[in-house]
Write a structure and sequence with these properties.
By secondary structure, the protein is an alpha/beta fold. The protein has 4 helices and 9 strands; from the N terminus they run βαβαβαβαβββββ.
Length: about 160
């Protein structure tokens, strides 16, 4: 299983007056990040945590790293604007239990590509008008075949809205 987590709530981009890569989580975002950490630390066998170097992604998975005693590692391929191809090409290479935290554009592109390729979608509220969603602080759980090909994608809604 690979866990694809969208960063938690970080406020509106238009209200941030600095470098957008440094935009932090809001209070709501911190509550969501702790909820994600609690769920993944109790329900999953997390083996590694990778995140976009943007502050909001890093802050989303720091509580999980703290609970599990795992180092949170940054991965440029998860940065906003990177697209799906770099991550799609590496999904088979991540060890089982890897958490990947990224942005809506990257996660959306990956999930759309998987669905278009016939991956079975599971989970309540995974689809809206027949299309997959990826709300802030939500998780897509990807199961793989022994050869690393993604077989199913299960949507887990964000904790605490």
């Amino acid at each position: 299983m690979i866990y694809l987590v969208r960063h938690a709530h970080s406020g509106k981009r238009v209200h941030w007056k600095g470098d957008d890569r440094k935009r932090p989580l809001t209070g709501q975002g911190w509550r969501q990040s702790r909820g994600v950490a609690l769920r993944l630390s109790t329900e999953a066998s997390v083996s590694a945590i990778y995140t976009s170097p943007h502050v909001r992604c890093l802050e989303t998975v720091l509580p999980l790293g703290d609970i599990l005693g795992l180092e949170v590692q940054t991965l440029k391929a998860l940065r906003e604007g990177r697209g799906r191809d770099e991550i799609m090409g590496r999904l088979a290479d991540f060890e089982p239990g890897t958490v990947l935290c990224s942005h809506g554009d990257v996660i959306g592109a990956v999930i759309r590509k998987l669905v278009a390729g016939g991956v079975e979608v599971k989970g309540k509220k995974a689809l809206r008008n027949g299309k997959p969603i990826w709300l802030k602080a939500s998780t897509w759980e990807l199961t793989r075949s022994p050869k690393g090909k993604v077989k199913t994608a299960r949507y887990v809604p964000p904790p605490f809205g």
